[in-house]
Specification:
Order of helices and strands: HHEEHHHEEEEEHHEEHEEEHEEHHEHEH
Distance between the termini: 62 Å
Strand content: 5-15%
Oligomer: single chain
Strand order of the largest sheet: 14-5-9-8-15
Number of helices: 13
Length: 537
Amino acid sequence: MTHPHDRALPRALRQAMPMARDVLVEVAKQHGVCIRPLALRRLDIVTGRAEIIDVPCGSTLDSKCPPCAKRNRQLRMAQCREGWHLDTEPAITPDEPNEEQRWLVEFRADMQAKRDAAAQAGDDTTDLDAVLAGLDEEINAAGMRGSVTGSAVPKRSRSTRRRQDAPDLPKRKMTSTTLGRTFHSSDGKVYRPSLFVTLTLPSYGKVRDGVPIDPDAYDYRRAARDALHFSKLVDRFVQNLRRVAGYDVQYFAAVEPQKRLAPHLHMAIRGTLPRAEIKQIAAATYHQVWWPQADEVRFDGDHLPVWDEQAGYLNPATGEVLPTWDEALDALDEDAEPLHVLRFGEQVDVQGVLAGTPDADQCIRYLSKYLTKSLGDALDGGQAQRDHAARMVDALRYEPCSPTCPNWLRYGVQPKNAKAGMAPGRCRSKAHKPEHLGYAGRRVLVSRKWSNKTLAEHRQDRRTWVLEALGQADQPTDPHRYIWRPIPAGDANVPPLAMRLLRTVAERQRWRAHLRELEARATGQDLSATEQTGRAA
Protein backbone atom coordinates (compact mmCIF):
# COMPACT_ATOMS: atom_id res chain seq x y z
CA MET A 1 0.00 0.00 0.00
CA THR A 2 1.31 3.42 -0.94
CA HIS A 3 1.61 5.85 1.95
CA PRO A 4 0.09 9.27 1.22
CA HIS A 5 3.33 10.96 2.27
CA ASP A 6 5.41 8.83 -0.09
CA ARG A 7 7.52 11.37 -2.03
CA ALA A 8 7.55 8.97 -4.97
CA LEU A 9 3.93 9.95 -5.67
CA PRO A 10 3.43 12.69 -8.26
CA ARG A 11 2.99 16.14 -6.73
CA ALA A 12 -0.42 16.60 -8.39
CA LEU A 13 -1.66 13.33 -6.85
CA ARG A 14 -0.46 14.31 -3.37
CA GLN A 15 -2.09 17.72 -3.62
CA ALA A 16 -5.39 16.12 -4.65
CA MET A 17 -5.53 14.28 -1.33
CA PRO A 18 -7.67 16.01 1.32
CA MET A 19 -5.92 17.39 4.38
CA ALA A 20 -6.59 15.23 7.44
CA ARG A 21 -7.26 18.32 9.59
CA ASP A 22 -9.83 19.60 7.09
CA VAL A 23 -11.57 16.22 7.14
CA LEU A 24 -11.70 16.37 10.95
CA VAL A 25 -13.36 19.79 10.82
CA GLU A 26 -15.93 18.56 8.28
CA VAL A 27 -16.71 15.49 10.40
CA ALA A 28 -17.13 17.72 13.44
CA LYS A 29 -19.59 19.89 11.51
CA GLN A 30 -21.59 16.82 10.43
CA HIS A 31 -21.90 15.74 14.07
CA GLY A 32 -22.93 19.21 15.24
CA VAL A 33 -19.70 19.78 17.16
CA CYS A 34 -18.53 23.35 17.72
CA ILE A 35 -15.34 23.84 15.72
CA ARG A 36 -14.21 26.85 17.76
CA PRO A 37 -14.78 25.77 21.37
CA LEU A 38 -13.66 27.96 24.25
CA ALA A 39 -11.56 26.16 26.84
CA LEU A 40 -12.50 27.23 30.39
CA ARG A 41 -11.35 25.96 33.76
CA ARG A 42 -14.25 24.94 36.01
CA LEU A 43 -13.71 24.72 39.75
CA ASP A 44 -16.24 22.77 41.81
CA ILE A 45 -16.31 24.56 45.18
CA VAL A 46 -18.04 21.54 46.78
CA THR A 47 -15.52 18.87 45.81
CA GLY A 48 -12.55 21.14 45.08
CA ARG A 49 -12.06 19.46 41.71
CA ALA A 50 -10.86 21.57 38.77
CA GLU A 51 -11.28 20.46 35.18
CA ILE A 52 -11.01 21.91 31.69
CA ILE A 53 -14.36 22.18 29.89
CA ASP A 54 -14.94 22.97 26.23
CA VAL A 55 -17.77 25.49 25.91
CA PRO A 56 -19.38 26.02 22.48
CA CYS A 57 -18.48 29.39 21.00
CA GLY A 58 -22.18 30.20 20.48
CA SER A 59 -21.55 31.84 17.11
CA THR A 60 -24.61 32.98 15.21
CA LEU A 61 -22.80 33.16 11.85
CA ASP A 62 -22.09 30.30 9.46
CA SER A 63 -18.79 31.90 8.56
CA LYS A 64 -17.51 31.43 12.10
CA CYS A 65 -19.00 28.14 13.32
CA PRO A 66 -21.72 26.43 11.24
CA PRO A 67 -22.81 23.94 13.96
CA CYS A 68 -23.38 26.69 16.55
CA ALA A 69 -25.10 28.89 13.96
CA LYS A 70 -27.43 26.03 12.97
CA ARG A 71 -28.21 25.26 16.61
CA ASN A 72 -29.04 28.90 17.35
CA ARG A 73 -31.22 29.10 14.24
CA GLN A 74 -33.20 26.03 15.34
CA LEU A 75 -33.69 27.55 18.79
CA ARG A 76 -35.00 30.76 17.26
CA MET A 77 -37.38 28.81 15.02
CA ALA A 78 -38.75 26.95 18.06
CA GLN A 79 -39.11 30.23 19.94
CA CYS A 80 -40.96 31.84 17.03
CA ARG A 81 -43.29 28.86 16.54
CA GLU A 82 -44.28 28.53 20.21
CA GLY A 83 -45.23 32.17 20.69
CA TRP A 84 -46.83 33.15 17.41
CA HIS A 85 -50.34 31.73 17.84
CA LEU A 86 -50.77 31.47 21.61
CA ASP A 87 -54.38 31.05 22.75
CA THR A 88 -53.66 31.72 26.45
CA GLU A 89 -51.93 34.65 28.07
CA PRO A 90 -48.25 33.99 28.82
CA ALA A 91 -47.82 33.80 32.58
CA ILE A 92 -44.93 36.12 33.41
CA THR A 93 -45.07 36.63 37.17
CA PRO A 94 -41.90 37.55 39.08
CA ASP A 95 -40.89 35.22 41.88
CA GLU A 96 -41.29 36.32 45.48
CA PRO A 97 -38.03 37.73 46.90
CA ASN A 98 -36.13 35.39 49.19
CA GLU A 99 -34.46 36.23 52.50
CA GLU A 100 -31.05 36.88 50.93
CA GLN A 101 -32.52 39.33 48.43
CA ARG A 102 -34.45 41.20 51.11
CA TRP A 103 -31.35 41.41 53.32
CA LEU A 104 -29.24 42.80 50.46
CA VAL A 105 -31.77 45.55 49.74
CA GLU A 106 -32.04 46.43 53.44
CA PHE A 107 -28.24 46.58 53.74
CA ARG A 108 -28.13 48.70 50.58
CA ALA A 109 -30.58 51.12 52.22
CA ASP A 110 -28.33 51.45 55.30
CA MET A 111 -25.25 52.12 53.15
CA GLN A 112 -27.16 54.68 51.08
CA ALA A 113 -28.18 56.51 54.26
CA LYS A 114 -24.54 56.63 55.40
CA ARG A 115 -23.43 57.89 52.00
CA ASP A 116 -26.09 60.65 52.01
CA ALA A 117 -25.13 61.71 55.52
CA ALA A 118 -21.44 61.87 54.55
CA ALA A 119 -22.24 63.94 51.46
CA GLN A 120 -24.38 66.33 53.51
CA ALA A 121 -21.52 66.77 55.98
CA GLY A 122 -19.11 67.51 53.16
CA ASP A 123 -17.02 64.35 53.72
CA ASP A 124 -15.37 62.26 51.03
CA THR A 125 -17.83 59.60 49.74
CA THR A 126 -15.44 57.67 47.45
CA ASP A 127 -15.26 54.56 49.65
CA LEU A 128 -19.02 54.49 50.26
CA ASP A 129 -19.69 54.90 46.53
CA ALA A 130 -17.50 51.86 45.88
CA VAL A 131 -19.44 49.89 48.51
CA LEU A 132 -22.75 50.83 46.88
CA ALA A 133 -21.47 49.81 43.44
CA GLY A 134 -20.40 46.45 44.83
CA LEU A 135 -23.76 45.94 46.51
CA ASP A 136 -25.57 46.68 43.24
CA GLU A 137 -23.52 43.93 41.57
CA GLU A 138 -24.36 41.51 44.41
CA ILE A 139 -28.05 42.37 44.08
CA ASN A 140 -28.02 41.43 40.40
CA ALA A 141 -25.97 38.29 41.11
CA ALA A 142 -28.57 37.26 43.70
CA GLY A 143 -31.23 36.99 40.99
CA MET A 144 -32.78 40.48 40.89
CA ARG A 145 -33.23 42.50 37.71
CA GLY A 146 -32.44 46.14 37.16
CA SER A 147 -31.15 48.69 39.64
CA VAL A 148 -32.56 49.56 43.05
CA THR A 149 -32.28 53.29 42.37
CA GLY A 150 -33.18 53.15 38.68
CA SER A 151 -31.45 55.41 36.18
CA ALA A 152 -29.58 58.25 37.89
CA VAL A 153 -29.19 60.20 34.64
CA PRO A 154 -32.20 62.38 33.82
CA LYS A 155 -33.61 61.90 30.33
CA ARG A 156 -33.70 64.79 27.90
CA SER A 157 -37.18 65.55 26.68
CA ARG A 158 -38.31 67.32 23.56
CA SER A 159 -41.74 68.23 22.27
CA THR A 160 -43.90 65.19 21.53
CA ARG A 161 -45.92 67.10 18.94
CA ARG A 162 -46.11 65.12 15.72
CA ARG A 163 -44.49 66.46 12.60
CA GLN A 164 -46.76 68.38 10.26
CA ASP A 165 -45.70 66.19 7.31
CA ALA A 166 -46.71 62.96 9.13
CA PRO A 167 -50.31 61.70 9.14
CA ASP A 168 -52.10 61.28 12.46
CA LEU A 169 -52.87 57.86 13.86
CA PRO A 170 -56.14 56.57 15.31
CA LYS A 171 -56.08 55.43 18.91
CA ARG A 172 -58.09 52.63 20.45
CA LYS A 173 -58.72 52.03 24.12
CA MET A 174 -56.03 49.70 25.46
CA THR A 175 -56.98 46.28 26.81
CA SER A 176 -54.72 44.20 29.05
CA THR A 177 -54.19 41.28 26.70
CA THR A 178 -51.51 40.07 24.33
CA LEU A 179 -53.88 37.88 22.28
CA GLY A 180 -55.46 38.88 19.01
CA ARG A 181 -59.08 38.50 17.96
CA THR A 182 -60.70 35.18 17.15
CA PHE A 183 -63.10 34.48 14.30
CA HIS A 184 -65.84 31.82 14.20
CA SER A 185 -66.78 30.07 10.98
CA SER A 186 -70.21 28.75 10.09
CA ASP A 187 -69.17 25.20 10.99
CA GLY A 188 -68.19 26.23 14.52
CA LYS A 189 -64.41 26.32 14.06
CA VAL A 190 -62.46 29.05 15.82
CA TYR A 191 -59.65 30.81 13.97
CA ARG A 192 -56.98 32.99 15.55
CA PRO A 193 -55.09 34.58 12.63
CA SER A 194 -51.82 36.42 12.93
CA LEU A 195 -49.74 38.60 10.63
CA PHE A 196 -46.43 38.44 8.80
CA VAL A 197 -45.27 41.95 7.92
CA THR A 198 -42.29 43.11 5.87
CA LEU A 199 -41.09 46.73 6.12
CA THR A 200 -38.43 48.35 3.96
CA LEU A 201 -36.56 51.65 3.85
CA PRO A 202 -37.21 54.23 1.10
CA SER A 203 -35.34 54.52 -2.18
CA TYR A 204 -31.99 56.30 -2.35
CA GLY A 205 -31.76 56.12 -6.14
CA LYS A 206 -32.60 53.76 -8.97
CA VAL A 207 -31.03 50.31 -8.69
CA ARG A 208 -30.79 47.28 -10.96
CA ASP A 209 -29.97 43.86 -9.46
CA GLY A 210 -29.16 45.53 -6.15
CA VAL A 211 -26.65 47.99 -7.63
CA PRO A 212 -27.22 51.73 -8.24
CA ILE A 213 -27.64 52.60 -11.89
CA ASP A 214 -25.90 55.93 -11.23
CA PRO A 215 -23.66 55.72 -8.14
CA ASP A 216 -23.05 59.49 -8.19
CA ALA A 217 -26.79 60.16 -7.86
CA TYR A 218 -27.32 57.53 -5.16
CA ASP A 219 -27.89 59.12 -1.73
CA TYR A 220 -25.28 57.19 0.27
CA ARG A 221 -25.34 59.62 3.20
CA ARG A 222 -29.06 59.12 3.74
CA ALA A 223 -28.68 55.36 3.30
CA ALA A 224 -25.89 55.33 5.89
CA ARG A 225 -27.87 57.34 8.45
CA ASP A 226 -30.99 55.24 7.91
CA ALA A 227 -28.98 52.07 8.55
CA LEU A 228 -27.35 53.51 11.69
CA HIS A 229 -30.72 54.42 13.27
CA PHE A 230 -32.94 51.70 11.79
CA SER A 231 -33.49 49.99 15.15
CA LYS A 232 -35.03 53.19 16.56
CA LEU A 233 -37.45 53.37 13.65
CA VAL A 234 -38.54 49.80 14.40
CA ASP A 235 -39.17 50.77 18.04
CA ARG A 236 -41.39 53.64 16.92
CA PHE A 237 -43.35 51.32 14.64
CA VAL A 238 -44.05 48.94 17.53
CA GLN A 239 -45.22 51.83 19.72
CA ASN A 240 -47.59 53.06 17.03
CA LEU A 241 -48.79 49.53 16.30
CA ARG A 242 -49.80 48.97 19.92
CA ARG A 243 -51.48 52.35 20.09
CA VAL A 244 -53.65 51.60 17.06
CA ALA A 245 -54.29 47.92 17.85
CA GLY A 246 -55.55 48.62 21.35
CA TYR A 247 -53.80 45.64 22.91
CA ASP A 248 -50.24 44.72 23.92
CA VAL A 249 -49.06 43.47 20.54
CA GLN A 250 -46.31 40.86 20.72
CA TYR A 251 -43.84 40.20 17.93
CA PHE A 252 -40.88 38.13 16.74
CA ALA A 253 -38.84 40.01 14.14
CA ALA A 254 -35.64 39.61 12.17
CA VAL A 255 -33.53 42.30 10.50
CA GLU A 256 -32.08 41.19 7.18
CA PRO A 257 -30.25 42.84 4.28
CA GLN A 258 -31.90 43.57 0.99
CA LYS A 259 -29.95 43.02 -2.19
CA ARG A 260 -29.29 46.78 -2.32
CA LEU A 261 -27.68 46.28 1.15
CA ALA A 262 -30.27 48.31 3.09
CA PRO A 263 -31.67 46.63 6.23
CA HIS A 264 -35.31 45.64 6.22
CA LEU A 265 -37.62 43.98 8.72
CA HIS A 266 -39.65 40.77 8.75
CA MET A 267 -42.05 40.64 11.68
CA ALA A 268 -44.35 37.89 12.94
CA ILE A 269 -47.16 39.62 14.85
CA ARG A 270 -49.57 37.85 17.19
CA GLY A 271 -53.08 38.88 16.32
CA THR A 272 -54.38 40.68 13.27
CA LEU A 273 -55.28 44.14 12.01
CA PRO A 274 -56.64 45.27 8.65
CA ARG A 275 -53.91 45.53 6.01
CA ALA A 276 -54.85 49.14 5.34
CA GLU A 277 -54.20 50.03 8.99
CA ILE A 278 -50.77 48.36 8.99
CA LYS A 279 -49.80 50.37 5.92
CA GLN A 280 -51.20 53.52 7.52
CA ILE A 281 -49.11 52.89 10.65
CA ALA A 282 -45.95 52.38 8.57
CA ALA A 283 -46.60 55.61 6.64
CA ALA A 284 -47.13 57.56 9.87
CA THR A 285 -44.04 56.18 11.64
CA TYR A 286 -40.88 58.23 11.78
CA HIS A 287 -37.88 58.75 14.06
CA GLN A 288 -36.07 62.04 14.62
CA VAL A 289 -32.39 62.00 15.57
CA TRP A 290 -31.83 64.94 17.92
CA TRP A 291 -28.06 65.13 17.72
CA PRO A 292 -25.69 68.06 17.08
CA GLN A 293 -25.11 68.96 13.43
CA ALA A 294 -22.79 66.61 11.54
CA ASP A 295 -22.89 68.16 8.08
CA GLU A 296 -20.19 70.85 8.39
CA VAL A 297 -16.65 69.45 8.67
CA ARG A 298 -14.57 71.53 11.06
CA PHE A 299 -11.50 69.35 11.54
CA ASP A 300 -9.95 67.07 8.94
CA GLY A 301 -6.64 65.65 7.76
CA ASP A 302 -3.76 66.87 9.92
CA HIS A 303 -5.93 69.62 11.43
CA LEU A 304 -7.50 67.58 14.24
CA PRO A 305 -8.41 68.43 17.85
CA VAL A 306 -5.68 67.83 20.43
CA TRP A 307 -6.14 66.18 23.81
CA ASP A 308 -5.62 67.98 27.11
CA GLU A 309 -5.77 65.96 30.32
CA GLN A 310 -7.60 68.70 32.18
CA ALA A 311 -9.99 70.17 29.62
CA GLY A 312 -10.45 67.44 27.04
CA TYR A 313 -10.16 68.13 23.30
CA LEU A 314 -9.04 71.58 22.11
CA ASN A 315 -9.09 73.43 18.82
CA PRO A 316 -5.46 73.06 17.59
CA ALA A 317 -5.43 76.57 16.12
CA THR A 318 -7.01 78.61 18.92
CA GLY A 319 -6.69 76.37 21.98
CA GLU A 320 -10.44 76.73 22.54
CA VAL A 321 -12.08 73.81 24.38
CA LEU A 322 -14.56 71.97 22.18
CA PRO A 323 -18.10 71.75 23.58
CA THR A 324 -18.84 68.53 25.41
CA TRP A 325 -21.61 66.21 24.27
CA ASP A 326 -24.03 67.57 26.89
CA GLU A 327 -23.16 71.17 26.04
CA ALA A 328 -23.77 70.51 22.34
CA LEU A 329 -27.19 69.05 23.12
CA ASP A 330 -28.03 71.98 25.39
CA ALA A 331 -27.33 74.30 22.46
CA LEU A 332 -30.22 72.74 20.50
CA ASP A 333 -33.10 75.11 21.12
CA GLU A 334 -36.78 74.58 20.37
CA ASP A 335 -36.35 75.90 16.83
CA ALA A 336 -33.55 73.45 16.01
CA GLU A 337 -34.03 70.86 13.29
CA PRO A 338 -33.21 67.19 13.89
CA LEU A 339 -29.99 65.89 12.40
CA HIS A 340 -31.90 63.20 10.52
CA VAL A 341 -35.46 61.94 10.08
CA LEU A 342 -36.08 58.26 9.26
CA ARG A 343 -39.16 56.85 7.55
CA PHE A 344 -40.19 53.56 6.04
CA GLY A 345 -40.53 53.17 2.30
CA GLU A 346 -43.77 52.66 0.42
CA GLN A 347 -43.29 48.90 0.06
CA VAL A 348 -45.18 47.27 2.92
CA ASP A 349 -46.15 43.61 2.61
CA VAL A 350 -48.82 42.20 4.95
CA GLN A 351 -49.88 38.53 4.99
CA GLY A 352 -52.44 36.79 7.16
CA VAL A 353 -51.22 33.50 8.66
CA LEU A 354 -53.02 30.68 10.50
CA ALA A 355 -51.38 28.37 13.02
CA GLY A 356 -50.28 24.96 11.84
CA THR A 357 -50.47 25.77 8.13
CA PRO A 358 -47.68 25.40 5.55
CA ASP A 359 -47.70 29.20 5.24
CA ALA A 360 -46.82 29.55 8.93
CA ASP A 361 -43.92 27.09 8.62
CA GLN A 362 -42.67 28.86 5.51
CA CYS A 363 -42.77 32.25 7.24
CA ILE A 364 -40.83 30.88 10.22
CA ARG A 365 -38.16 29.46 7.93
CA TYR A 366 -38.03 32.76 6.08
CA LEU A 367 -37.68 34.70 9.33
CA SER A 368 -34.64 32.64 10.30
CA LYS A 369 -33.19 32.42 6.78
CA TYR A 370 -30.53 35.08 7.20
CA LEU A 371 -29.89 34.76 10.93
CA THR A 372 -26.72 32.77 10.26
CA LYS A 373 -25.42 35.36 7.78
CA SER A 374 -23.91 38.78 8.41
CA LEU A 375 -25.37 41.75 6.57
CA GLY A 376 -22.25 41.79 4.41
CA ASP A 377 -22.78 38.18 3.33
CA ALA A 378 -25.44 39.41 0.89
CA LEU A 379 -22.67 40.44 -1.49
CA ASP A 380 -23.38 37.87 -4.18
CA GLY A 381 -23.86 40.29 -7.08
CA GLY A 382 -20.28 40.30 -8.30
CA GLN A 383 -17.81 43.14 -8.48
CA ALA A 384 -20.49 45.79 -9.03
CA GLN A 385 -22.19 44.99 -5.74
CA ARG A 386 -18.86 44.82 -3.91
CA ASP A 387 -18.07 48.29 -5.22
CA HIS A 388 -21.52 49.41 -4.03
CA ALA A 389 -20.75 48.01 -0.55
CA ALA A 390 -17.36 49.76 -0.53
CA ARG A 391 -19.04 53.09 -1.27
CA MET A 392 -21.53 52.44 1.54
CA VAL A 393 -18.70 51.69 3.99
CA ASP A 394 -16.92 54.86 2.86
CA ALA A 395 -20.11 56.88 3.52
CA LEU A 396 -20.30 55.35 7.00
CA ARG A 397 -16.69 56.02 7.87
CA TYR A 398 -17.21 59.54 9.24
CA GLU A 399 -20.87 59.28 10.24
CA PRO A 400 -21.33 59.40 14.04
CA CYS A 401 -22.87 56.10 15.13
CA SER A 402 -23.49 56.95 18.80
CA PRO A 403 -22.84 59.72 21.34
CA THR A 404 -19.47 58.11 22.16
CA CYS A 405 -18.31 57.88 18.53
CA PRO A 406 -14.92 59.56 17.87
CA ASN A 407 -16.31 60.94 14.60
CA TRP A 408 -17.89 63.80 16.58
CA LEU A 409 -14.43 65.41 16.74
CA ARG A 410 -14.65 65.95 12.98
CA TYR A 411 -17.66 68.21 13.55
CA GLY A 412 -16.28 70.14 16.53
CA VAL A 413 -17.93 68.22 19.39
CA GLN A 414 -16.29 66.16 22.10
CA PRO A 415 -17.74 62.63 22.18
CA LYS A 416 -19.52 61.53 25.31
CA ASN A 417 -16.99 60.11 27.80
CA ALA A 418 -14.14 61.44 25.65
CA LYS A 419 -10.66 60.06 26.23
CA ALA A 420 -7.19 60.41 24.77
CA GLY A 421 -6.39 58.76 21.45
CA MET A 422 -9.70 59.36 19.70
CA ALA A 423 -9.64 60.28 16.01
CA PRO A 424 -12.33 60.65 13.34
CA GLY A 425 -12.68 57.63 11.08
CA ARG A 426 -11.32 55.22 13.70
CA CYS A 427 -14.48 54.21 15.55
CA ARG A 428 -14.37 50.56 16.63
CA SER A 429 -18.14 50.12 16.76
CA LYS A 430 -19.43 47.26 14.65
CA ALA A 431 -21.67 49.73 12.81
CA HIS A 432 -18.61 50.90 10.85
CA LYS A 433 -17.42 47.41 9.95
CA PRO A 434 -18.03 46.15 6.40
CA GLU A 435 -19.86 43.03 7.57
CA HIS A 436 -22.53 45.13 9.36
CA LEU A 437 -23.03 47.96 6.82
CA GLY A 438 -24.15 50.50 9.42
CA TYR A 439 -26.65 48.37 11.35
CA ALA A 440 -25.30 47.66 14.84
CA GLY A 441 -28.56 46.58 16.49
CA ARG A 442 -29.82 43.11 17.32
CA ARG A 443 -30.70 40.89 14.38
CA VAL A 444 -33.51 39.14 16.28
CA LEU A 445 -36.13 41.22 18.09
CA VAL A 446 -38.49 39.41 20.46
CA SER A 447 -41.05 41.14 22.66
CA ARG A 448 -41.05 40.32 26.37
CA LYS A 449 -44.41 38.56 26.39
CA TRP A 450 -43.94 36.54 23.22
CA SER A 451 -44.05 33.22 25.09
CA ASN A 452 -43.54 31.72 28.52
CA LYS A 453 -39.95 30.73 27.68
CA THR A 454 -36.68 32.52 27.23
CA LEU A 455 -34.06 31.37 24.75
CA ALA A 456 -32.16 29.75 27.63
CA GLU A 457 -35.28 27.76 28.55
CA HIS A 458 -35.67 26.57 24.96
CA ARG A 459 -32.04 25.48 25.09
CA GLN A 460 -32.71 23.64 28.35
CA ASP A 461 -35.68 21.85 26.72
CA ARG A 462 -33.35 20.44 24.06
CA ARG A 463 -30.85 19.37 26.68
CA THR A 464 -33.56 17.69 28.78
CA TRP A 465 -34.88 15.77 25.75
CA VAL A 466 -31.42 14.46 24.85
CA LEU A 467 -30.59 13.43 28.42
CA GLU A 468 -33.92 11.68 28.87
CA ALA A 469 -33.44 9.83 25.59
CA LEU A 470 -30.01 8.70 26.78
CA GLY A 471 -31.44 7.58 30.10
CA GLN A 472 -29.59 10.19 32.15
CA ALA A 473 -31.11 12.34 34.85
CA ASP A 474 -31.32 16.04 34.12
CA GLN A 475 -30.69 17.44 37.57
CA PRO A 476 -30.50 21.24 37.79
CA THR A 477 -27.13 22.39 39.05
CA ASP A 478 -26.57 25.11 41.59
CA PRO A 479 -25.31 28.13 39.60
CA HIS A 480 -23.14 29.14 42.55
CA ARG A 481 -21.43 25.74 42.80
CA TYR A 482 -18.94 26.31 40.00
CA ILE A 483 -16.39 29.04 39.38
CA TRP A 484 -15.39 29.52 35.75
CA ARG A 485 -12.07 31.01 34.77
CA PRO A 486 -10.56 31.70 31.32
CA ILE A 487 -7.41 29.78 30.46
CA PRO A 488 -4.40 31.79 29.24
CA ALA A 489 -3.21 31.11 25.70
CA GLY A 490 -0.46 28.52 25.55
CA ASP A 491 -1.47 26.74 28.77
CA ALA A 492 0.26 23.33 28.66
CA ASN A 493 -2.72 21.66 30.37
CA VAL A 494 -5.04 22.38 27.45
CA PRO A 495 -4.89 19.68 24.75
CA PRO A 496 -4.55 20.82 21.13
CA LEU A 497 -7.78 21.76 19.39
CA ALA A 498 -7.62 18.71 17.11
CA MET A 499 -7.51 16.35 20.11
CA ARG A 500 -10.46 18.12 21.73
CA LEU A 501 -12.47 17.89 18.52
CA LEU A 502 -11.72 14.17 18.20
CA ARG A 503 -12.92 13.53 21.75
CA THR A 504 -16.13 15.49 21.25
CA VAL A 505 -16.84 13.73 17.93
CA ALA A 506 -16.38 10.35 19.64
CA GLU A 507 -18.81 11.40 22.37
CA ARG A 508 -21.40 12.49 19.78
CA GLN A 509 -20.98 9.17 17.97
CA ARG A 510 -21.78 7.30 21.20
CA TRP A 511 -24.86 9.47 21.75
CA ARG A 512 -26.14 8.88 18.23
CA ALA A 513 -25.54 5.15 18.45
CA HIS A 514 -27.48 5.03 21.72
CA LEU A 515 -30.35 7.06 20.23
CA ARG A 516 -30.51 4.74 17.19
CA GLU A 517 -30.62 1.76 19.52
CA LEU A 518 -33.49 3.29 21.49
CA GLU A 519 -35.37 4.08 18.28
CA ALA A 520 -34.92 0.50 17.09
CA ARG A 521 -36.27 -0.83 20.39
CA ALA A 522 -39.26 1.47 20.22
CA THR A 523 -39.99 0.41 16.64
CA GLY A 524 -39.71 -3.26 17.62
CA GLN A 525 -42.12 -2.80 20.51
CA ASP A 526 -44.63 -1.06 18.24
CA LEU A 527 -44.43 -3.89 15.70
CA SER A 528 -44.81 -6.49 18.44
CA ALA A 529 -47.92 -4.75 19.80
CA THR A 530 -49.39 -4.58 16.29
CA GLU A 531 -48.82 -8.31 15.76
CA GLN A 532 -50.48 -9.18 19.08
CA THR A 533 -53.47 -7.00 18.19
CA GLY A 534 -53.78 -8.78 14.85
CA ARG A 535 -53.68 -12.21 16.42
CA ALA A 536 -56.30 -11.22 18.98
CA ALA A 537 -58.55 -10.00 16.18
